[in-house]
Design a protein that fits this description.
The chain has about 475 residues and is an all-alpha fold. Helix 6 packs parallel to helix 16. It folds into 2 domains: about 425 residues, no CATH class; about 60 residues, Serine Threonine Protein Phosphatase 5, Tetratricopeptide repeat (Alpha Horseshoe), CATH 1.25.40. The termini are far apart. The protein is built from 20 helices and no strands.
Length: about 475
């Protein structure tokens, strides 16, 4: 009877897994023909370097191959390699092949997320439903409407593929402990870095994994003598990766050209804005109703701004919650996920100013941890703490299904916004009405159709919010001439 029950359970799980995978494919079925947008133009469309896979070795020594614009020539040879391979397979600039490649990586990421989440749950609290819990967490992430930007926006494959490499590296480290002496887990980490630098955040993630799950220690004891063995085990685990990461970062910084312009914002203004940006990212996971491909957020002008205090209080609250929950081994997945979320935002939400104070594709990597933390927190409160209440299981099942359906519908609709320049920039103009660049780009769609008066209206509106944007003046002159 037990064997038959296990077989039936395996069939049910396999069926649900197949249905969820099919659902992801249906949700994204309308995105494969979406064109190149925005930064895709200078990194792919007008970038001659990707037109021959014979140039791949040059990508790793010459940052000018990354983009046709000197101000955007950052050192990311991995993503340029991926673009060159897709260009070669497609036989030209066919976005379909780029989207297929990106989507396959997305599905692979889902697989590795499931394997890792399942192992983390088993290490914290063995339960017969752990694989279903892990599947729900992965589903919430993959169906989440905020993921649509990274999947649709081709050059954002840098976020997607680097995240995949981080997960592969973590998987190898977790599942093959006896092979760690061969340092095989460093290989995907290295390539992940070459695709995008935030892959370096695997270092604290790995240390946190060892401390919480292998050493089963509490974060509240981290500065106490009894936690010394766990701390030492974590340090030993991350030491090789830290050395490799430091070398890679030094190389990348030494290769970057002086023409590369990361941001016009001051480091201080950018820094004091990020705590509230992190609040925005967190609330976006709960409700992604204000997604915009190009936001109109500006840096805070003063430390007296109440939003800075709100952000700092939120971050402190998340850290305190993660530390307190780590006292119970069963809650380690929540602590791990919350700190994953904060740690992976460090490259984009700290002292390194970027051109925009926030972007939706920056949450792709952090949301992996947040999906684990919030999913398991809900499961713990509604199911594990009340296993005698079968009604709770039905409620959670119905709620989970509704959540995935709503996100799936939102993602499918979001894909439509990326279907053309006009639909994309119309959405930006509506969602971010104070973004001069977004208004200009929407105006350009009218200019291409010969609707000059409508184009001029958006150009002039853009100049109100961005009076120092040279391209706006150029396009205004062009449309007036026309």
């Amino acid at each position: 009877m037990d064997l038959q029950r296990k077989k039936n359970d395996n069939r049910i799980f396999a069926l649900i897994s197949v249905l969820m995978t099919a659902g992801i494919m249906i949700v994204y079925s309308n995105h494969f023909r979406n064109p190149f947008h925005f930064d895709d133009v200078h990194t792919i469309v007008s970038n001659p370097a990707i037109r021959s896979i014979g140039n791949i070795p040059q990508f790793f020594v010459d940052p000018t191959t990354t983009s046709s614009l000197p101000a955007n020539q950052v050192y990311r040879p991995g993503v340029t390699t991926l673009n060159a391979i897709d260009y070669w397979i497609a036989g030209g600039l066919n976005p379909l092949y780029f989207h297929i490649s990106i989507f396959i990586a997305f599905l692979l990421q889902a697989l590795f997320m499931f394997l890792i989440f399942r192992r983390l749950l088993d290490m914290s609290h063995r339960h017969k439903w752990n694989r279903y819990f892990a599947l729900f967490a992965v589903g919430w992430y993959c169906y989440h409407t905020a993921m649509a930007e990274t999947v649709n926006y081709v050059i954002s494959r840098s976020d997607g593929f680097s995240t995949l490499m981080v997960l592969v590296s973590l998987y190898v480290f977790m599942f093959f402990p006896k092979k760690r002496k061969f340092y095989l887990y460093l290989i995907p980490f290295i390539f992940g870095f070459f695709v995008k630098e935030p892959a370096l955040m695997l270092i604290p993630i790995l240390g946190l994994y060892v401390y919480l799950f292998e050493e089963k220690a509490s974060l509240t004891h981290i500065f106490k003598r009894k936690a010394a063995p766990a701390v030492w085990a974590s340090v030993k685990a991350i030491f090789p990766m830290t050395i490799i990461g430091a070398v890679l970062f030094y190389i990348s910084q030494s290769i970057v050209l002086e023409s590369f312009n990361l941001s016009t914002l001051s480091r201080f203004d950018y820094l004091i804005t990020q705590p509230f940006v992190i609040v925005h990212y967190f609330t976006t996971f709960l409700y992604p109703g204000w997604l915009s491909a190009d936001t109109d957020w500006n840096a805070l002008g003063s430390v007296a701004d109440i939003r800075l205090l709100m952000g700092l209080m939120f971050i402190a609250g998340v850290v305190i919650l993660a530390f307190r929950l780590s006292r119970k081994e069963q809650m380690h997945p929540v602590s791990f996920g919350l700190l994953w979320f904060l740690a992976t935002l460090v490259p984009t939400s700290s002292i390194i100013p970027l051109s925009e104070v926030l972007n939706d594709h920056r949450i792709y990597f952090p949301f992996v941890g947040l999906a684990l933390a919030l999913s398991y927190l809900i499961i713990k409160w509604l199911i594990l703490d009340h296993e005698d209440r079968t009604q709770n299981v039905k409620i959670v099942l119905a709620g989970a299904t509704l959540l995935l359906v709503l996100h799936g519908w939102g993602t499918h609709e979001r894909n439509k916004i990326w279907s053309s320049e006009e639909t994309l920039w119309k959405d930006v103009a509506e969602k971010s009405p104070k973004n001069g660049r977004g208004l200009m780009n929407y105006g350009l769609t009218f200019m291409r159709k010969g609707e000059y008066e409508e184009a001029l209206k958006y150009f002039e509106k853009g100049l109100i919010y961005n009076p120092y944007y040279s391209y706006l003046y150029i396009n205004t002159a062009v449309v007036k001439s026309a």
